[in-house]
Every structure is written in C-alpha cells, then in structure tokens.
Write a structure and sequence with these properties.
Helices cover 28% and strands 25% of the residues. The protein is an alpha+beta fold and 214 residues long. Strand 1 and strand 2 form a beta hairpin.
Length: 214
C-alpha cells in the first residue's frame, strides 16, 4: 500500500518500506519494523506487522520479545530450529492469508510447522484440504444392484453358469414346490444375483455431494 503517514513527520511508509526519520530520534521503545528470522540456517526477512497477523502465534510473541528469550545469530536474526522448507508457505500465509504450495510439497509438513508456530487459521485450512484429499482419493463405493430371478430346480445350474457381465450369485432361496403334476415335484427357487456399479469420476457431478445435508 502506498499510504503516506505524515503525522508529526515521524514516519513515511511507502511501498519500499523505507523509514525516514529526518533526524528525529524514534520514540523510546519502538522496535524496528523489519525482522530477520534464521530458520534452520535459512534467513527470512519479514516485518513485525506480518509476524503479528496471528496474535497467538509463536512468531508474534517472538518478535514482541515478550516471554521468549530466543537466541540470535551473528546478524541479530532470531534462531529457530525448524525446517526452512515449510517456513515459506507459513510466512506467505501470514503475508496474504492464502495457502500456496509447490505441487510436490506435502501439506502434512506444513501442518506440522503451522502447529509448531501455533497459527490456528492455517491449521484449519490444511486439515480441511487433507480431508478433502482423502475423500477424493478413496474410490466412491460401488452401488450394488440386486435382482431376484425365479427358476426351477432343473434350470438352476444353467442359469448360474451363464451369468455374465459382472453379475454375482448371492443367495438361493428355496420357496418349495409350487405345483404338482403327478410324481413330478418341481422345486422352485428364488435366485438372488448382484452386480456392482462403479461411479466414474466424471459421473460424480450429477451425484449429490458428500457434504449434502440429509
């Protein structure tokens, strides 16, 4: 932002983030605007304002120097013994409120750091993402279609042997003899068969979403 704040002439904040004091000493107790963090050997440069976006975070408490006596390296950067790989997304989240990851960066890794630095909103975003991922990875469970066929004893073997195209034999119900011609006792059976229908991912859009309220 190109906001120019000129009250009392003590500070002019342009896009460059220069601080022009025009020879007036800064009021006692104000801290420098820029903060250096040395995360596992990689130095990040950011502002106090960015780090304090999330008031409860470790980073905010760190740069306010409240209760954390953090070691500093020879350049005065706060030393943090964490993986720098995942610190980039954390810092960028504090800068603009979005989670942006390289395609091969594991969300779990960022989640680990978000929890370490105690950045609540980011933890929630990643957990939601992971849940969504798990949902899309798991195959939509197949629907079972059942059919009940009625047949006589002598037709049974032929019918079971000619079942094709994904139909599976499930159950046979003997419904007893339904008619009687002299000695010919024909036992009737109900034959239950099932078939699995898989939803293709493309067909998903027409399906109600898993978050639909019942």
């Amino acid at each position: 932002g190109m906001r120019m704040r000129m009250e009392g002439g003590e500070e002019m904040q342009g896009a460059v983030g220069l601080r022009c004091t025009w020879g007036i000493p800064p009021p006692a107790g104000t801290q420098a605007k820029w903060v250096r963090l040395n995360v596992g050997g990689t130095v990040f440069l950011t502002t106090r304002q960015t780090l304090c976006r999330e008031q409860k975070s470790f980073l905010c408490r760190l740069c306010q120097g409240e209760d954390l006596q953090s070691d500093r390296d020879e350049t005065g950067a706060y030393l943090i013994d964490r993986d720098p790989t995942y610190f980039g997304p954390i810092l960028n989240f504090l800068r603009h409120g979005k989670l942006v990851l390289d395609k091969d960066m594991a969300e779990e890794g960022v989640l680990e750091e978000a929890e370490f630095y105690n950045i609540g909103p980011l933890i929630r975003i990643i957990k939601d993402r992971l849940e969504e991922k798990n949902y899309t990875v798991t195959q939509v469970p197949p629907k079972h279609v059942y059919r009940v066929l009625q047949c006589q004893e002598e037709e049974l073997t032929q019918m079971v042997s000619t079942m094709s195209d994904g139909w599976r034999f499930e159950q046979l119900v003997n419904i007893g003899s339904s008619y009687n011609y002299g000695n010919e006792d024909q036992t009737e059976f109900l034959c239950v068969v099932s078939k699995e229908l898989y939803n293709s991912p493309s067909g998903l859009s027409s399906e109600p979403s898993h978050k639909a309220k019942v």
